[in-house]
Amino acid sequence: QVQLVESGGGLVQAGDSLRLSCAASLGTFESYHMGWFRQAAGKEREFLAFINWRGSVTSYADSVKGRFAISRDNAKSMAYLQMNSLKPEDTAVYYCAARTTGSPTYGYWGQGTQVTVSS
């Protein structure tokens, strides 16, 4: 059964840091690229970061570039999102997602974890 489970969300103050984790049950984790997304209340889901199957290629949305860092540990089937210098506008539900190396779309999603940043 394919499963992605996010953790690490919570309530923090502006300027704080959080690290989100995504535990994957995907079979061969190395067969998947991983991404992080978020959705704020009343807004569309937003892409944040991508990491390829080896961890050798990453990309970021402009809104988080320089503040967030995506990483993965293939030995543990884990993906991470380190979030620094958090702002109130970063408040959202954060999701990890997986797509096979041969697919352009993310076929697997976690249930999300809430991040709330107070000013």
Per DSSP E runs of 2 or more residues, the count of β-strands stands at 11
Radius of gyration: 13 Å
Q: Ranges with pLDDT <50 over ≥5 residues?
A: none
> Helix segment count?
0
Mean pLDDT reading: 96
H-E order: EEEEEEEEEEE
Shape, principal axes of CA atoms:
globular
% residues in beta strands: over 45%
Oligomer state equals single chain
Given helix and strand content, the structural type is mainly beta
Distance between the termini: 40 Å
Major β-sheet annotation:
7 strands, mixed
What does this structure look like?
The strands form two sheets. Strands 2, 4, 5, 6, 9, 10 and 11 form a seven-stranded mixed β-sheet that branches. The chain is an all-beta fold. The chain starts with a strand and ends with a strand. It has strands spanning 3-7, 10-13, 18-25, 32-39, 46-51, 58-60, 68-73, 78-83, 92-100, 108-109, 113-118.
Summarize the structure.
This protein has 119 residues and is mainly β.
Layout of helices and strands, plus pairs?
Blueprint: E1 3-7, E2 10-13, E3 18-25, E4 32-39, E5 46-51, E6 58-60, E7 68-73, E8 78-83, E9 92-100, E10 108-109, E11 113-118
Parallel strand pairs: 2-11
Antiparallel strand pairs: 1-3, 3-8, 4-5, 4-9, 5-6, 7-8, 9-10, 9-11
